[in-house]
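New to this. Help decode both lines:
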Amino acid sequence: MRETFGTEMVRSLTARIKELEKQMRGLVITPGQYFEERTFVKTGIADNTATSVFKITTTDETGDTDAGGYACEVTALIGHAVTDGAATNTAVKSFKAHFARAMLADGNSANTAVAEISETASAATASGTRDVSTVTMTVVDASKYVTQVKFQIDLTGSGVTTAQVVCVVRLIWYGFTTPPELSAA
């Protein structure tokens, strides 16, 4: 009797697992499909100057087949005079923001405003000498198919130099014939 009960239990569980596997096959997304993540580093950013850090490029397809949409999320480390082995005063802060873009088949499009998720206070070794005041991320259309993402960093202190941005960019997209491409600006 125990053997029959055990056999029936195994059959029942096997059937349930097969059904779950069948359902899961429809949920599998191939790596790189609908999602891309890249890291970008930009150094030597002048104080309070909007500077392109990365861009998103979509393809001008033959005919009217350019439609799609994407959401872009950015997490960044903002620095003022950050170097390895630095003996000088430095400051950093964390920044996070996102935006979205909708594109018609003829390439005409619309972007949302950049929504800042968070900006931490700065961590400065000597705020009177070098600090980071505010960070602003903007989105600028260089063309129908190229969107630039810029950072403007307000540096403060008596020893202002240049800023650095290290950012991880996540792009979630859908509908494009050719996936959008993230690249350094």
In short: The two ends are 71 Å apart (CA to CA). The chain has two domains: 1-29, 31-184. The mean pLDDT is 90. The longest strand covers residues 68-80.
